[in-house]
Amino acid sequence: MKSPRLQVLNRIRHDHPRHTPNLPDLFERMGCTTLGNLPFANGDVTAGSESELQAVVVGSASQVDLPQTIEQSRFFANMIKRTQSGDTPEKQVEALREFISDQGQQVWENSWVRFNRSVLSRYAQQVLERDFLADKSHPELGNRSDLHRFCFTDEQGEQKLRLPLSYLVKLSLADLIGIQPYLHQDLRATAEGLLNHYLNDNTSPETFSFHVVGLSADNGQGKALAHETAKRFLLTQLLTEYANEQFGLTASGQQAQIYCAPHPPQRQKQLNEMIPDAFYRELYMSPCLSGWDKGEEKHQYMHLCHQVLSRSQLNAVAKLREAGIITNNLVVLPNMSNISLANNGSHISLGSRRLTAHMKGERGLFGADEEKYCGDLAIKIQEHFLPLFAANFSAAPYRLGFEDFHPEKALGFLAHELDFTHLRMLWRRWRKKSSLNLISHSRTPFGPEWIDRPLSRLFGLKGDFVPDFRLVDYPVGFLSSDESPALNGVAGNQERLRHDLDAMGVFDARMSLYQFFKMREFNTMGFSGFEGRHYSLFAGFEQDMGAATTLQTLITALAFKYMAEGRYDHRHIPDNPGVESERRQIFFGHALGLPTFFVKRTTRNRFLLRILRKTKQIRNSRRYPGYLRVYQKEYCRALIEVLSEDGADLIEQMGCRELMADLRRRIECPDEFSVSGRLTADIMSTLGTNQPLQVPAAEFNRAAEEFYRTTLRRRHVDEALELLRHELPHLQRMATQHASVRSTLRMICGQRRLTDAYDQLMDAARYQNLHGANLLRLINLVLLSIHVDQQAAQTPSKEESFYNNASDTPVYRAS
């Protein structure tokens, strides 16, 4: 048996690098000492994004799949029987009946659709049959065992399909390919290549970049990625309209819509309270038909994620009690079915050509150990800048009523993301900010809604408004354990943390670890870089997503500049839960709109101290001896100053002067320039008021959902259409060089000028009057533009195509 001392020594060896690289020497040997050769500096960056979207079907309960599925389910039949026998209260059945017979808005979030299989072209039938296989790499194994979920025969003997909207878009594209045998072979190949970019994953539709985008000052840095994302969104909209028309959805009372929205819908939350978790997964967990060879296996993985997060949410209640936030046994237990997986956001991945080339090289200067050491350090540095992003470049405005302020519900997953000290500080500050005061004391709800709602109305307890609630309602980054830090630069550290979290009932070791920034390791993804996963909803593609991408690129480049200069290494940002929680509580507080946070005077985080030295109006905390009270706004100003000073040469080289001016505007005048301020103003204008707390929480959140589904969706479409219009001269020039471009433009325009033909199509799209041949023309024009973009993105070197050699699919997709 090993001695305790030997066990400790083994643990120390296990948790620290076998060798600590001399970073300046490493970067000098790699030839990355000058600004022009720095990783992630100008011209070195490739980018891609993944978008999670919201799907709804508009129609009456008698025509739409979701209410029909609930009404015809064994669960509903059993509930009725239990009610008749007196085992289940009748009000539960009545509540569910009221839900499925709602004749008001007639909007069914994440419903599936039903249509005749005979409407599909032969090619679409082939794509469908392949996706029905149990293992696409082994067709001889036959079909999935759950095929009955997707295929059935109606009363008239017609073969019907029942599919989620996330798969419908892919099938729509396949059908469009199939009905156009005259499509130029280059364009057809491009369209076929896009099929795998529509993922049938989780609950919501997901798409990832059609091609990898190179970022540089010449193409506007992040604007280039924003343009690709806008075009992808536009194609998704057009394919949805194609399905509505070509598959007979509109004619049968099913209007499919896909758009950007950050929160789980209110009605989906309402239904989740009425049904067990297994039935919730049956209704909403995607079958994973597209994106994986073994779809059923991936589908079971999504079930695992839902079960684990539901269990994790329940375990958070015990942590809140340990932290002293819950002080008695009067709690409202969270639902055993957690709905956080229905949150929608965007992921932005950045890759470095230089680091990737070194990983592929034979000199061995920069291998997996160095990649891990530098990557973890870069993430720790980047996390300090996260408050610049939340609510400013993306947001998720949300109202909580007084009855929502049970800590076990309002704090979401924060009990697993912050240590107890920072969790208590944040909760106290949040209660103080909110409208919860009764008789000069901050009160939280008692529990039963029949008490809390009248109390709220009687004493004017309005709750709170949160600028970016998705970041609290979703597990964006679990806290490291004492023995398994996630970012200490040691290979295998995250695997060890996953097992620790598994043992604590917080996570499952089989799942991928949630993080704010995630390393994209070369040996796994085929390139070396980082994925930013902290984005909620962008109000605009170019204005907001483009700027956020540029800022993420600038901060990443600055982190590597620090390493090349030897200014910071892992010793300067220690790897323990307290230091990790200390920097992350700033980000969560900013997302909640809290004005201040607290930092220990004796913090060992030297990088944080560097920022705090530039932060004004800091004073010693009277409530928390030994802590400094820091204003969020002043901290953000200090971050901008650090960026401006330490990254002055990067800002100049990367053409980021306008970004810095824009960043200052968002920080100084958030109501006018930040995404949260702009979205909130738009939502409030539909309600006829200018203060979120002047309307009930449910009314504000319903208005937000309606705004995202209608006005914001049209704005996103209009922006994408306008961006495409600016590319028309380039397409005309390309037509003189490429037969595929020339033949497609001739097919779209006939004898008319391209601009005239496009203006007609654009007007029809804006007024939602795009049908038939005109819809097909616009889709083909978008496909042509994507084809031209892909050709331009190709480089002479195959090594720079950044494709995953194992699956031949672009690497910028979620793992």
- The coarse silhouette is globular
Average pLDDT number: 90
How many whole angstroms does the radius of gyration measure? 27 Å
> Which oligomeric state applies?
single chain
Instruction: List unreliable stretches of 5+ residues.
Output: 1-16, 796-815
Summing up helix and strand content along with how strands pair, one would put the structural category as alpha+beta
How much helix is in the residues? 40-55%
Strand content: 5-15%
Taken together, the total number of domains comes to 2
Measure the end-to-end span: 40 Å
The helix count comes to 33
Number of strands: 20
Let me know the largest β-sheet: 7 strands, antiparallel
Region (Disordered): 795-815
Biased composition (Polar residues): 795-808
Write the layout of secondary structure elements.
Elements: H1 4-15, H2 23-29, E1 45-52, E2 54-58, H3 65-71, H4 74-84, H5 90-100, E3 107-109, E4 112-116, H6 122-131, E5 151-153, E6 159-164, H7 165-178, H8 185-194, E7 198-199, E8 206-208, E9 213-215, H9 222-246, E10 255-259, H10 266-272, H11 277-284, H12 295-322, E11 346-352, H13 353-360, H14 368-383, E12 398-400, H15 407-410, H16 420-433, E13 437-438, E14 441-442, H17 449-459, E15 464-466, H18 470-473, H19 493-503, E16 517-520, H20 522-525, E17 529-535, H21 541-565, H22 577-592, E18 596-600, H23 606-612, E19 619-620, E20 627-631, H24 632-646, H25 648-653, H26 657-668, H27 670-673, H28 675-687, H29 697-726, H30 728-735, H31 739-749, H32 754-766, H33 772-793
Antiparallel strand pairs: 1-8, 1-9, 1-11, 2-3, 2-10, 4-6, 5-6, 7-8, 11-17, 12-15, 13-14, 16-17, 18-20, 19-20
